[in-house]
Design goal:
There is one protein chain. This protein is mainly α and about 130 residues long. It has one domain (about 5-115). It has helices spanning about 5-25, 35-55, 65-80, 90-115. The longest helix has 27 residues, at about 90-115. The model has no long low-confidence stretch (mean pLDDT about 85).
Length: about 130
Amino acid sequence: MSDEATAAEVKSVVFRTSVFSAALGAVLSPIPFADELVLVPVYGVMVARIGRARGLDLAGLPWKPLVTAITAGLAARGAFNVAFAFIPGVAAVSNAITAAVLTQTLGRYADAVCRDGVAVAGPFEATA
């Protein structure tokens, strides 16, 4: 598969996962932290699909930096969303937006790690 085709496939995976995670965030917003728990396997599947597009199998994926990024992202998202958890309507919108943004960020990071290797700075780390 050409690099352009691979990049298009990865972009499609990340977009579809973003839409799905936003919908989950909105639907599960009445239950605090439920969406964070549900998003863990969603992000695992997204990472596996990105890895497969980049020619890596499950065993070949650099799981440690990816799991660290997913955990940090979900923790930050949960802390942010607590501020809006008890405002009906606002909570659903906040959960949907933060789920989509986190998914996009993690998707770009997972693609970079799978493409360039583990030496890529994490999405929540300062780069030099």
